[in-house]
TrEMBL record:
Keywords: Flavoprotein, FMN, NAD, Oxidoreductase. PANTHER family: FMN-DEPENDENT NADH-AZOREDUCTASE 1 (PTHR43741), FMN-DEPENDENT NADH:QUINONE OXIDOREDUCTASE (PTHR43741:SF2). Coiled coil: none annotated. It comes from Halomonas aquatica. The gene is azoR. This is FMN dependent NADH:quinone oxidoreductase. FMN binds at residues 11, 96-99. Its EC number is 1.6.5.-, 1.7.1.17. Its cofactor is FMN. The lineage of its organism: Bacteria, Pseudomonadati, Pseudomonadota, Gammaproteobacteria, Oceanospirillales. Residues 4-197 form the Flavodoxin-like fold domain. Also exhibits azoreductase activity. Catalyzes the reductive cleavage of the azo bond in aromatic azo compounds to the corresponding amines. Quinone reductase that provides resistance to thiol-specific stress caused by electrophilic quinones.
Length: 202
């Protein structure tokens, strides 16, 4: 049985980004498994615009009644949701920008977190509609934040994933990358080893 993984990168530094390096290591490990197929979406190259009211409104119009413009706007979200549903694992390679996620990744979440499609509101609160999937977060940070109140990024990512029903989440941290070469190399080595183990288990 083949497992399909979707890896999303969002570093504005391109090949110089440490989260990109983690994503590339994941891809290298995955290539050694015939039963693991990986797709890659570069959210910086995609250059998704910020979500606007016209795009949000287009989701509320039945597909057969949309204008050409509404069809194009709604198509962004439809395509990204379809891609997500078509994979078993979503891998988020995420740098930390000002204690948060890149706006490019937030633009992706804004389109896959869609009421009536990937979650719904109930009397007991929101309910995720995506089942049986898992996520891996590859987090690259210049400082040390994991396990501290300043790590709002991890909670934010887990909360967004959880809202749509993805609660099986593994996190690999590469931290302190701005604290000198020896610390950076040790942290990246530890992260690569964690990725090796995760890929083996997928």
């Amino acid at each position: 049985m083949t497992t399909r993984a979707l890896i999303l990168t969002s570093s504005i530094l391109g090949e110089n980004g440490q989260s990109i390096a983690l994503a590339e290591h994941f891809l290298k490990c995955a290539a050694e498994r015939e039963d693991l197929k990986v797709s890659h979406r570069d959210l910086v190259a995609d250059d998704l615009p910020h979500l606007t009211q016209p795009e949000l409104a287009s989701w509320q119009v039945p597909a057969e009644e949309r204008s050409a413009e509404q069809g194009e706007l709604a198509g962004r979200s439809d395509a990204l949701i379809h891609e997500l549903l078509d994979h078993d694992v979503v891998v988020l390679a995420v740098p930390m920008y000002n204690l948060g996620v890149p706006s490019q990744l937030k633009a992706w979440f804004d389109r896959v977190m869609r009421s009536g499609k990937t979650f719904q509101y109930t009397e007991k609160g929101p309910q995720g509609l995506i089942e049986g999937k898992r996520a891996v977060i590859l987090a690259a940070r210049g400082g040390q934040y994991a396990g501290t109140p300043m790590d709002s990024q991890t909670l934010h990512l887990k909360s967004m994933l959880g809202l749509i029903g993805i609660r099986d989440v593994d996190v690999v941290f590469a931290e302190g990358l701005a604290k000198g070469e020896s610390h950076r190399e040790a942290s990246l080595k530890e992260a690569r080893q964690a990725i090796d183990s995760l890929v083996y288990k997928l």
